Amino acid sequence: MPTSPLFLGIDIDASGLCLVVLDQAGQVVTQLRRAYGGRGEDGEHDPQDWWRALRTGIKEMLRRSRCAPNRIRCVGITGPADVLVLLDAGGRVLCPTRFAANAGLQPYVDQLHAATGERNLANLAGGYARLGCAASRLLAIREAEPRVWHDLQLVLPAKDFIRFRFSDNPGTDPASAGRSCLFNPRTRAWSKQILSRLQFDPAWFPAPRSGDQIAGRVSAAAAQETGLQAGTPIVTGASHRCAAAVASGVLAEGDTMIELGGTGCLLRTCAEPGRDPQRHLRSGCHCLDGSWTLEQDGLAAGPALDWFEQEVTPAEVQQARRHRRPVLDHLAELAAESSPAADGLFFIPPDASRAGGFVGLRLEHRRSHLVRAVLESGALALAQALPAFQACKAPIARLVVCGPGAENTLWCQIVCDALDRPLESFVETEICARGAAILASSAVGIHRDVETACAAMVAADASYTPRSAATAAYRAALPHRARIGEQLDELHQPA
What we know:
Number of helices: 18
Structural class: alpha+beta
Number of strands: 22
């Protein structure tokens, strides 16, 4: 009796390795999460630790699930686009890497702008330079580690390093390349002008190919180390953001994804490359051929909520953990005690480049208002971002929410009300690994293409519709929130 095919999705992230095996209907057959060893005190990772965790993790996963290696028909890999692995001519790792960007990279962002011209860079690379983009990280390495720079022959994002260890084939996808500030999303090619001005060797950067294409096969050596069958196909894969988009079916023109919590991004799929003259939105590539994105980061991000939990509500956090409940669920119960728009209380989240704070605080406000203002801050920021899409003639059609906040009913409803749009939520915690496995399923003939795979393997966990009274409250609050943000920016501008 023939056995059904399975697909392995691998996710490399800062907290550890995730493995998810899906069947052709999108059901989870088995999954496993494993931490890395040997992380440095300053947050440095040895990429070889990822491979060590992977080779033992796959063997353990196969053993626990009693899954024969030949049932894994294809492998997909995802990871952060900005985390780079630098290799020498022999494919050896030259130095540790970091997941998180830090303020120490700002001089290299400035150096990037000085070398290319800020407006020219935006035109060529699709938008503004970000603190942790590949270009700024490479400039920092060139200055700090000349010996590494001398031996450098290949630059790969984290997921592509893992595929390289599997198959000895270097490569990347257009979405990961597009986050580097070295890549032109319009031409879907590395920018010769940017590379030349920065004096980066074009040979370091492999040509991108669609995330659903077979980009290598498990070598005999990798098969022996991991327990997979030699010759198993591996697709190019996708960055975290685009893998999550695939797993939530965000593929068609106008489909839009919100990552609630985490990086707090807003991503819209486009049938052709876009451009925002006001530079609020960044133009990029989807991981699939013939598809682009418009994106904005930091709109409903996790760091401000993390700060609030640690510094303002530590007792509630401890209580939730004692009862083995998600902390956000416990806080949402508090927030539900106050009305939409938090009775005039606003929270402007601080970040690396600007200050924030609570504004409009009165003596009658309670802890529930504070929590609600924090949750509403992300929703109102998302609502403020929508006009930029309209200005680019890129209206939002279908709207989905994923990420750490997607499983919280109140937060999703707040977003739905603030945006005045129906939305669907996807609460899968390992959504990026799932997206990688879905890409793999479309590459070996099980599903005709990624769209067909998503139709068979993707289903929303919940749906929300706007409530008119709450929508009206948020619509009235938006102009006040915009003015407060502008005033805070002016107040904290350097003299």
